[in-house]
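Schema walk-through. Below, the input block comes first and the output block second. Nothing else is stored per chain. Lengths vary across the set, and this one has 281 residues.
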Amino acid sequence: MQKARPYHHIPINDSGEPLVEIPLDKFAVISPHPYQQVGASYPDYSPYHLRKGVVDRLCLAQDYLQTLQPGWKLAIFDGYRPVAVQKFMVEHTFEELVQAKGWQRDNLTPEQSESLWELVHQIWAVPNYDRATPPPHSTGGAVDLALADETGMIIDFGSPIDEISERSHPDYYAHNSPLRLRSVTTLRLRSLLYERLRQRQAQGIAVTAPQESLTVSLSNCSVTVDTQNQTYHQQRLLLKAVMTQAGFQRHPGEWWHFCYGDQMWAWLSEATTAIYGRVEV
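--- output ---
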């Protein structure tokens, strides 16, 4: 099973702040809710609830996004998640991995089972009822989200939410967008890239197709930039910028997960205590 997270030692002094409904008219919503679609049940609160302080900050983030990208909205994927739903989704994900491997759960070897559980817990916190180490979403202090453009279309971040792969890492496309150069200034490089983009656009050639790259040469210098990968990385940076401006912290391993007030937030903020524990219903 999963080892202790690096924030589990942080004490919780719950503020008692209530869960409140997210004002969905202010945001885009990824619907139908993906966990309810596969059978998860929310008997007390819908997944579109968060602690009041988190909702207030989410609204601030949306307002800030408008100053950077008018017409765009934060796209809410998941908010409050009771431990029972966490358990359901952990089991569901494990079963999906078993099927993807073409294995039978009853016939798994201990090594196979352990390898799959390690994959599951790369993304999913252990569904723990211990009040000292609650799963982040059970506190009402964590939210999974993306961005939607002015038409309402969800922006492509280069990997879907909850994907178990290296692509989920926030900086995956920063590390996988090749940029190779010798002896060329940044300003000159930008000028060359923009000129090449203008030339291709004038010729009616799209420059954002998947896997497309641009190559610019200057004397003995060759620069290759994967434009789609760069776009994915910039979208992730934009989401981080608007959320951290409002006081959130981003999960170190998931581009879509942001938190405020829980143990992860306290750990990333170097706060001495968390202010949200597991919501009691």
